[in-house]
Specification:
The chain is mainly alpha-helical and about 700 residues long. The protein contains 31 helices and nine strands. Helix 3 crosses helix 7 and helix 12 packs antiparallel against helix 18. The longest helix is centred in the first third of the chain and has 37 residues. It starts with a helix and ends with a helix.
Length: about 700
């Protein structure tokens, strides 16, 4: 009977009356999706980031359309009321952008790409990826774009995508908890978020991913590349499914490809060199402006100075650009209507008088230099003088399009065989953008957006010449200047060839006495006659020595270390003071937790002397004194999950350590590639010092 019942139940399930088979299949599918958390996370990241970007572009677009409609009701663009309304909208929008930074979050100011470059290199930027910053960034970029400031959106979109990635890891409970616990994987997911942000900003999936790799990473793991492409593709598919992809595109005009790949290729190379020079000049002037603001931070950095800068610049720009429709289209992807789109004007066959109708009295070729100068100055002021959410790529892309169109018009006059100058506009745009950002991927972005593979060779030639000239004139990109603008820590490239003779021993913070270290290895004196080595050694000697723990260190020793003035987050542990054999490192926060577990954390913050050991007649004070004299409970393990006892100080024996003969250029490579915060220096197994990222950053700037 039991067999018959089992058979009947099996038949009932197979018949589908209770949907058992479908439920089992669905359950397996759910488990498979959960098992592949990385794929699910990347898909959600791409979709959410693209939708937020689309919402921002749509909001700015319809605000502009509404403003244009009101101007038409008030008498058209030629009326004084129209000008007044345009300036009023700019003033209100700029106020919103300023409030988002002042009241919302100071982390919302600026681009987002320089900050993410720091985070991906291992630098912690407090509260940069919080929900409060996300809200401030979204509101700020909408206000900034609608105010008419000459800013872009690629940097803010990178920041927004990175915040979405961070919040998905934090707030999705057990679903993405394993991803958040793996620090290496978390860094890869944040890198993928940067790729999504750039792709949604440009409307170019492949070029956007490659651009994000160039601007956010000194070194990039190839195995992580698929994550960026997959997330960016998911975002692109989501937007295309809605059917409004054109709002996100960098430009949407059809490019006329009437050029000759003979002698004209030389002109494209010259145009690329010109674009690189323009980009380098922009970088140098931006650095001057940033330095000026930092020198006068007392007056300009106050709340009154902050609001005054934003509002005055917004009103002045709106008044001066109102007669020029081509200058009102700062983001040209969603800020304006299609008829007034700046890049589409320049890359299509539109005649010059149609672009700037208030200046019909001037010769045709006089229009473009005037527009170029105004665009250049206004972009420089909007990015370097103000502290609002902003991007830089799209404004300098327009600057390059104007310069390229001018060159094309000149070539068209000089060579009757050339009948169209629009190809020069797109090549010039790519050249200046590449010169300002030092990125080769600009060529891929342009070809991807135009859909014309024939454009690849002239654009690539121009971009290569632009990057070469720009790096010759200024080794730093515009994003490096923006790093300086916000005072973010970053390692510059080693420019002095003599620094290659330096080793880890010349730049480390020492732990043992210099005499002991000098007697340790005879070869340490090699190259000591070099002035660079002498200066480096003297500078390292001026750094405070790093404290350390031994296997016999007591709670009192730990309190004295925490009371010290050093800021080391990892405290080395050696076997004994006599042999200094390196065993591992303990986290400063973990040491605080252990003291709190034994109710000794109160002694860290006070400066009074610790209680001496007594006979216990004074009650609790004597017990505390004996506890302070007790050795610390040390457990050598890489993770807390493997700790065999509770209330123990975990010592990680797997921390990064190098020998003191390691060349300085290798130190830079390792710190940049692995994202280290410090590396302990040993000699024959003995701990002799530590090199921190902070010290390397100070050296690269000095």
């Amino acid at each position: 009977s039991s067999r018959r019942r089992a058979a009947s139940v099996r038949d009932l399930r197979n018949s589908g009356n209770i949907g058992y088979g479908g439920q089992r299949m669905w359950r397996r599918l759910v488990h498979a999706v959960i098992a592949e958390r990385t794929w699910l996370f990347l898909a959600l990241l791409g979709v959410f980031s693209a939708l937020v970007a689309l919402a921002i572009d749509a909001c700015v677009h319809y605000l502009y359309v509404g403003t244009t409609a009101l101007i038409a009701v008030l008498g058209g663009e030629q009326s004084v009321l129209g000008l007044g309304l345009f300036a009023a909208v700019a003033l209100v929008s700029a106020t919103i952008a300023a409030l988002s930074v002042d009241i919302g979050s100071r982390n919302a100011a600026g681009s987002g790409i320089p900050e993410m470059k720091c985070i991906l290199s291992g630098v912690t930027v407090a509260k940069y990826l919080s929900l409060r910053t996300l809200a401030a960034k979204v509101v700020g970029i909408v206000g900034g774009l609608n105010s008419g400031l000459f800013i872009g959106k690629e940097g803010p979109y990178v920041h927004i995508s990175s915040i979405i990635a961070e919040q998905l890891l934090r707030r999705c409970g057990p679903l993405f908890a394993p991803l958040a616990k793996d620090e290496n994987l978390k860094q890869q997911l944040l890198a993928a978020a940067c790729a999504v942000g750039v792709s949604t900003s440009f409307g170019a999936t492949v070029g956007g991913v490659l651009f994000s790799v160039e601007v956010t990473s000194n070194f990039y793991l190839v195995e992580n590349l698929w994550k960026g492409f997959f997330a960016a593709a998911c975002g692109t598919l989501a937007v295309r499914g809605i059917g409004v992809f054109s709002l996100l595109a960098l430009f949407s005009g059809e490019v006329s490809l009437k050029y000759i790949l003979g002698w004209e290729l030389i002109v494209f190379a010259a145009l690329g060199s010109l674009g690189g020079a323009i980009g380098a000049v922009f970088i140098k002037l931006l650095r001057v402006l940033v330095s000026f603001v930092r020198r006068h931070s007392t007056s300009l950095g106050s709340r009154f100075g902050f609001y005054t800068r934003v509002l005055v610049v917004a009103v002045v720009i709106s008044m001066l650009t109102y007669p020029f429709p081509i200058l009102r289209n700062n983001n040209f992807g969603g800020v304006s209507t299609r008829d007034d789109d700046a890049v589409n004007y320049l890359i299509q066959g539109t005649s010059l008088p149609d672009m700037t109708h208030p200046l019909h009295v001037l010769p045709d070729l006089a229009f473009l230099p005037i527009i170029f100068v105004l665009k250049f100055i206004f972009t420089l002021v909007s990015i370097g003088f103000l502290e609002v959410p902003c991007g830089v790529y799209t404004p300098i892309f327009v600057i390059g399009a104007i310069a390229g169109r001018f060159v094309g018009e000149v070539v068209k006059l000089a060579a009757p065989s050339i009948t169209d100058a629009t190809a020069y506009a797109i090549v010039g745009a790519a050249a200046v953008a590449a010169g300002g950002t030092h990125t080769i991927s600009t060529a891929i972005i342009v070809v991807e957006l135009t859909g014309q593979i024939r454009l690849l060779l002239p654009v690539l030639v121009a971009v290569l010449f632009a990057v070469a000239v720009a790096r010759f004139l200024d080794r730093h990109s515009v994003y490096d200047v923006m790093l300086e603008q916000k005072g973010l820590p970053h390692m510059k490239a080693l420019r002095n060839a003599r620094l290659g003779r330096l080793r880890a021993a010349d730049v480390m913070r020492k732990i043992v006495d210099a005499a002991e270290e000098a007697s340790d290895d005879d070869d340490d004196s090699a190259g000591s006659s070099d002035a660079v080595v002498h200066r480096a050694t003297a500078r390292a000697a001026s750094l405070p020595p790093l404290p350390y723990l031994t296997t016999a260190s007591t709670f009192a020793d730990a309190i004295k270390i925490l009371r010290g003035e050093h800021d080391a987050q990892l405290i080395p542990v050696v076997e004994s003071t006599e042999n200094m054999v390196f065993l591992g490192a303990a986290n400063r926060a973990a040491l605080h937790r252990v003291l709190a577990d034994f109710s000794l954390d109160g002694y860290v913050a006070v400066t009074e002397s610790l209680p001496d050991d007594g006979d216990g007649s004074d009650g609790g004070r004597g017990q505390t004194a004996r506890l302070l004299a007790t050795p610390l409970p040390l457990v050598f393990t890489a993770t807390a999950a493997h700790a065999p006892v509770q209330r123990a100080l975990l010592v990680d024996p797997t921390v990064f350590q190098l020998v003191k003969q390691t060349p300085l250029y290798k130190l830079y490579y390792i710190f940049s590639m692995v994202g280290l915060s410090n590396a302990f220096i040993t000699s024959r197994g003995r701990l002799v010092g530590v090199v921190t990222k902070k010290d390397l950053i100070a050296r690269s700037h000095g």
